[in-house]
Design brief:
Elements: H1 8-18, E1 39-40, E2 46-50, H2 55-60, H3 67-79, H4 85-90, H5 95-106, E3 110-114, H6 128-145, E4 149-153, H7 155-162, E5 175-180, E6 187-195, H8 198-204, H9 215-238
Parallel strand pairs: 2-3, 2-4, 4-6
Antiparallel strand pairs: 1-3, 5-6
Helix pairs in contact: 1-6, 3-5, 3-9
Length: 239
């Protein structure tokens, strides 16, 4: 039987638990006492995890608020279900209204978070100690949201959440991983996938190859499209 302590109230309790956190050196990078726990639906079927907030995210008090976040939202819109009329209307927007529309809409469908809740300095990777200090927070969120599928973007998030990095043999594969229940200590199974981080795709600069069905960006889009199709099939089987 499923334990309690799931959903919005549980997610908010985890956020308040970490406000003002000083458990690792990243706390000195925050501009306020607030951490960036993530955003989205507390009952989402899909959870997307990146490695860290950026300095811009910290200043904006919102994860995935910078160019990397814009890139990810644009990518998700491109692979989103063709029969979703609500997304169709957003696709007609221009400029900031488009990004805000995609972000707000996907926030109703997906829960977005990061391995660590505080920013690192520009181009500085999350260390082993920092990741291990914050991974319990992420595991709590996974348990509390209880998604059908967890997608990690990049090796750092994949290593500490799923237990493996984004080697070519792992990308786009659905693999089982387990976390420990924060309430009973029992192991709970989830499905996970790893694919490229949007920052890596921006640096690769191969978006012009998408129409030719080539490149890292195209492959990542196919990985995420696969994840979305699996969720859609699961829902259809439940009805």
């Amino acid at each position: 039987m499923r334990e309690v302590n799931v959903g919005l109230e549980a997610v908010m309790n985890t956020y308040f638990e970490y406000v003002g956190c000083t458990k690792c050196s990243l706390c000195s990078n925050r501009s306020t006492k607030d951490v960036l726990p993530g955003f989205g639906s507390a009952t989402a079927d899909l959870m997307i995890i990146v490695d860290k907030p950026t300095e811009a995210d910290d200043l904006n008090s919102m994860l995935l608020s910078d160019a990397t976040g814009h890139f990810l939202m644009n990518l998700l819109e491109m692979v989103w279900y063709d029969d979703d009329k609500n997304m169709d209307r957003i696709r007609d927007y221009w400029g900031p209204k488009y990004f805000e529309g995609v972000r707000d809409y996907l926030s109703q469908k997906i829960f977005f978070t990061s391995l660590v809740a505080c920013p690192t300095l520009e181009n500085i990777e999350v260390t082993k100690k920092q990741a291990e200090t914050c991974v319990d927070r992420v595991n709590k969120l996974i348990y509390q949201v209880d998604p059908l599928l967890v997608v990690c973007l990049g090796s750092v998030a994949g290593k500490y959440i799923l237990g493996y990095g984004d080697a070519p043999t792992n990308r786009g594969m659905i693999k089982e991983f387990t976390i420990e229940s924060p309430y009973s200590g029992r192991r709970v199974r989830y499905a996970g996938m790893i694919t490229h981080h949007p920052k890596h795709l921006m640096n690769a600069g191969d978006q012009n190859l998408v129409s030719q069905r080539r490149g890292l960006t195209y492959n990542t889009m196919e990985n995420i499209r696969k994840a979305l199709n699996i969720l859609k099939i699961h829902k259809e089987l439940q009805t």
